What we know:
This protein is of the alpha/beta class and 150 residues long. It has helices at 20-31, 50-57, 73-78, 87-92, 118-138, and strands at residues 9-14, 37-42, 81-84, 101-104. The relative contact order is 0.23.
Amino acid sequence: MDNTQRQLRIYFLCGQNRCRSQIAEVFVKALGRDDIIVRSAGLDPSTLHPLTAQAMQELGIDISENQSKKIDMKFFMSATVIIKLCDEIQERCPIVPFGIRNEHWNIKDPLAGGNASIDQVREARDEIQEKVIKLLQKYNALADKSLTIN
């Protein structure tokens, strides 16, 4: 990487850090260059939902040990890009400082309402994967890794 270019630091935020932001973080780790720093967090951290782990396991990615995290303001302030994955975080999130790219993906929470199905989580997973690939392409940060994601 060119030393004049700031290291890419991506922060994915959603309500509980139990599904969407976890998936996005893992896709960046799986598909992005090794020098990218990526994290995820939630406004009101919960626990990783079993359907989230199941949907990722279907792609050969084990996230069963992942923990939900609360927003880390130090990382927030040092991010290159902050991606808000839902309207809730858009409304309640701290103000993103000037100079940090602020994106809003508004991906429907597949776990909302308590009647979650694996199909809803798969749909969100696949939408997030597409958006992560586009994000990494935008920053010229896709890796040539042997891991293939369906």
